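Sample 1 of the test manifest.
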Amino acid sequence: MAVTRPMLLSASPHLRAALGVPQAMRDVVIALFPAVVMGVIYFGPYAAAVVALAVVASVGTEYALCRLAKAPVTTSDWSAMVTGLLLGLNLPPTVPLWLPVVGGVVAIALVKRIYGGLGHNFLNPALAARALLVAAWPARMTTWVSPFDGISTPTPLAQLVPRAAEGLGAPPAYLDMFIGNTAGCIGETSAAALLIGALYLLLRGVIDWRIPVAFIGTVAAVTWAFGPLGWFTGDFIAHILAGGLILGAFYMATDWVTSPMTRRGRVYMGIGCGLITVLIRLWGGYPEGVSYSILLMNIATPLIDRYTAPRPFGAARR
Amino acid sequence: MLALVKAVRNGIIDENPVFRLVLGLCPSLAVTTAMVNGFWMGMAVIFVLTCSNLFIALIRGVVPSKIRIPAFIVVIATFVTIVDLMMKAYVPEMYKTLGIFIPLIVVNCIIMARAEAFASRNSPIVSVADGVGMGLGFTLSVMVIGAVRELIGTGNLNLFGFALFGQGLGSDPAMVAVLPPGAFITMGLMLALINAAQRRKAKASVGGEA
Amino acid sequence: MGKRAFYGGVHPPDVKPAAAQGIVAFTTPDKVVIPLQQHTGQACRPLVAVGDEVKLGQKIGEAEAFVSAPVHASVSGKVTAVGVAAHPTLGTGQAVTIVSDGLDALPEDVTVRKDLAALSGAQVREMIHQAGIVGMGGAGFPTRVKVSPPPDKQIDTFILNVAECEPYLSADHALAREEAAAAVLGLRALMKAAGVERGIVAIEDNKPDAVKALAQAMSGDPALTLAVLPCRYPQGSEKQLIWAALKREVPSGGLPLDVGVIVNNVGTAVAVANALTGMPLVERVLTVAGCAVAKPQNVRVRIGTLFSAVIEFCGGLTQPPRKVIMGGPMMGIAQSTLDVPVLKGTSGILVLSEAEVRDYPVLPCVRCGRCVEACPMRLLPSEIAIRSDAGDWSGAERASARDCMECGACAYVCPSRRHLTQSIRLAKRELLARRKRG
């Protein structure tokens, strides 16, 4: 057979690995699916509407801003979808329906696109938007209800910390916290659902185990050490299961764009997140510190990368 | 006469101290939780700026250049003290709100910059015009920032005890706008908008000439 | 041996379609085009003119510099052209075209057998040079130069490189399996030439049959050991191989000589063994693979055979090729025409179909760090590439761009499909040019 058209000339390598950005982002969406389902089971169709609006607002903002800037439309890389989904799952199930929309617009417009879009934002868009929503509407963002019946309830975290737990009753059983039958954000309560997705992401090679392991390990170690009744009396299992730790550690601290590139750096990122989380939880003014800890470490990421750059092979030891 | 108008206009638009020169950011961020705060802050700055510009222009021939900065500061501090005491006496409520930022006018970059860059090189009359222009530019800027933040953060605009929107707009104002982060976000976005408008204008004028 | 033989690296799919097959000989090309530059260093001066009759193994290009290697006629026949021809790595280059008479007639002096035991190290080095032997893994560095270390370097180990870590390629694998005795003989000759006592045969564990054959061929020789390494790209890179086998770190900007090691490819060793029979380097084994070729296989071909002829021998094209590569898919060079000749360093011809060549849109760097994990030189490929793309050459230099060996691992893993290797390559070229300008 004759050569009918010019052959492609390109520089090596001529092979590419299977995992690309859109595939990885889609994997995150798939991994979050169990958490969405559990959230809707626990908090009803209203929660589904909240998550859906966050997604629609995020993707819509991405599309609109790309068109406005006359830039290529980048909604097909799934990253705006991931941002919207994570934002929705990080909202309480009682928020008014305009709130996820505002959050989605803020996440994409103010945190992501304004810096140049995918890869250029220095903060996790979903978390930064959540932080802004908490600052803007603190009451709306901290109104918790129990699953199924929707009765106003404190979160397990509030019950865990002695300074705040006065009169709130005992925290729920571990099993309830594990399956997610507690008050909290739509997507954060069910550790089981989140872990299934996290396992998928680890197996697919989308996320590195270092950040979540260091993050959760640090939280466990420190909460255990600084227990309410003295040294090494802390209920670290409850601290792992309560609040947004698992969601944050596996899905948000591991965000490619805003976490360190070096392996050692990722361990430091995880430890830093863990320390700040515990600091806020046990001694800070907010009941939960996961999102702020991740945001603070996001900012530290370029610095971590700089100081953990590996010594080139063959270079003199520093 | 034209030069005077031009000097005033320059301070308000072309070289707006807050949005174009990005000077005096400390009070621009700190006291702009409401439009009225901006107004009073602006009044204080206009007074200090105009008076200090006038006096510095008057003494510019006799002050040795080596000690000009300390001399400027003495002049500026004098007028700041006057404003400080006056406001404490006649608008005590506002004085409490603005607090430390009134005495801090002494170190406000706008005033020092105009003294150094303009008043020490120009005649007293033009310097007064410059002070008025720059002061007005500052006042308008902080009032705009204050208005935006007040509107978003409280859902209403208050002007001398009169609520512009009666019961307020909506029941869910975004409190963050009147918190410190809100100052930075508002300021950043307004700078971005003004830069974008400026760029568009520049592009349009280039296109027109071509 | 630990699980990770060296830092970083990647695991491309272990696709070696021709690995299990024997070597098929294709020694009857109608014509050959023999470039006068097939090696690092100075090009040869042609010794023949149009119309000359040449015999198989006759020297047709003389090396006139220390870093150079002569070239020989790979068929007997008539010289029909001496001049510019297409070249697979240089674009074009001076070449001698010979139309074969199909006789493979030999000149007398070519058939003289030599006994390794009777030769001195210097004689072996001269034999290697006269046989035109260069590194056959792809780089084409003259072997005589490699086995002539400067006197101030203490060389204690010779490593025979059978890693062959590139996907698709299986020529070294087949050679080691089927000509293990020749490979080991060649290794001994190379060790004698370099004056080295200890030899290590380094091979990846995905070639058990070759491991067995080599172990058998070298049994009873206490000077030789076998290092079976876990499969990982780029194991075949000298610095990585030395680390994997000896845990010695070649210094930045240095050579294996700096840590007392010489590395040579198994194909080179077999060529040296052939030189002992009197035959210079006129043929080599290469892998023909890819979905657009009918019969992927390991072929023994004469140097200078055109790609088109080799592909025709392998059953021809089954569909129009989208991309043809000389070498492996990770470091090979894409060709614009099939009328380029096989060089001494051509380890494979990949004829990739439309389906095998995927052209991805390039996305912004998402700082995932995969390239950092993959880089066997422990560099930050994304940072070097970003600096290179911005024209910040000194920034690229500070980020150790010079240490890059262009293995392609970073671009292979990049989920944003960025052309990292190419950007870094560009920075290296620019830095080299600047250094030359002074």
